[in-house]
Amino acid sequence: MTLAGCSNIPLLTFRLGAFESMNSTATKSPTTTAKPASLSQRDTGRKAMIEADNLSKFYGDFAACRDVTFTVAQGEVAAFLGPNGAGKSTTMKLLTGYVAPSAGTARIAGYNMSTHRLEGAKQLGYLPENGPLYPDMTPRSLLTFFGKARGMTTQQIDDRLPTVVDLCKLGSVIGKPIGKLSKGFRQRVGMAQVLLHEPDVLILDEPTAGLDPNQIREVRDTIRRIGETKTILLSTHILQEVEAMCNRVIFINEGRVVFDGTPAELAADDKNLDERYYQLSVG
Fold it and tell me: Spelled out in words, what is the top-level CATH class assigned to the domain 9-21+38-282?
């Protein structure tokens, strides 16, 4: 994954407005809504912030994912593993409300993303694969633009901007064109824009793909800092990231969850993560 510049204005507008524009045919949210007091099924004693309840997505006879069920509790950093084509990106799009499920329910912070998408979107920061960035903008102008697109006031943006710039270590490049930044810095700009509205939940689709070892280390450090206060679900193919950043592993293969546990449980029976990854991938 790269965060290369995207010059297609309608595409960016669609991504930013996906929660609203794709909700135009959905059930309208009532004036007053109460969050379900759901807890993680893993008995953590903490509120479930990300919930997949028998999620399925079919394209004709092809099942991109089938009956995917898991929860990520408040404060967890969960790795979402699986080979290419396993259904990771599809499941993430279902969880964010970006794609409607064929069956099942996705919830963010207790909100059903099919019926209360706008409420859920306020709690969510989503960094998709090939997320949109404008190469001619600076990080400052891009973050201001995204903030306004999300409905933030100028004062809210001015108050929040220094925090995300410091968290993502963008101070040295805040006024430089994004197109002239390294991949690592562009990735940090993407992180900053999903954090701008102070979401409680982050869903990150392969945030270190295509980066060199130094850039990967920088992005890992950023995710560690974010993970101190947020709930995170991130997909990755780099197993070292699981041990370095995550306290939870969810493994999907052929559209189904085949493992859900801790990194230590994944490497049980004295097997290393590479071997376990292979075993789970081939069934």
Answer: alpha beta
